[in-house]
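Handoff note, outgoing to incoming analyst
You'll be picking up this chain. Sequence as last confirmed:
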Amino acid sequence: MTRIQTLDQFNFHHTLEETPGIALVVITGPDCGACRMMKQALKVLLELGEALTVYEVDAEQDGGIAEEFGVFHLPGLFVFRDGHFHAPLEVEALPEKITQGIETILAAPAQDSP
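Most recent structure output, in case you need it:
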């Protein structure tokens, strides 16, 4: 799949629990330039065939999710594998940096979801 899928408060937890493999959640805002740059980098990763499912949550529409994950600055990125939360991802909006960051996070055990 080469597109970023949208999640909201009604399908967020259920969808992530059911997603096999690596999932990346990006919490964004409609007027966020850094969010647009990050989404573009993620689209490049997906087009390159990266084994990754990417979900987007609009912080303006679903502020409860942003609050649950303690997002203070957009974009907020969070890594999941096989439905389990691993960690927040803080990287530059470059495909290779995103890949390296995910690999580093997944080398450690899953954490409790915020």
